[in-house]
Amino acid sequence: MFSMDNSFKKIISEGLANLSNIFKSNKLSDDALGIDIGSSSIKVVQLKKKNGKAILETYGVLSLGPYSNAEVGAITNLKTEDISRALVDLMKESNVTTKTAVISIPSLSSLIFTISLPGKIDENQLSKVIPIEARKYIPVPISEVSLDWFIIPGEEETSESGVASKNVVQPKIEVLVVAIHNDTLSQYQEILKKTDLQSDSFEIEIFSNIRSSLNHELAPVMIIDFGASKTKVSIVEAGIVRVFHVVNRGSQDITRNISQSLSITFEEAEKLKRAVGLDPKIDERVEKIARLSVNYILTDINGIVFAYEKKYNKNISKIFIVGGGSLLSGLLDVTKKNFQAEVVYSDPFSKIEAPAFLEPVLRASGPEFAVAIGLALRQLS
Question: Quick one: pLDDT at residue 29?
Answer without folding.
Answer: 62
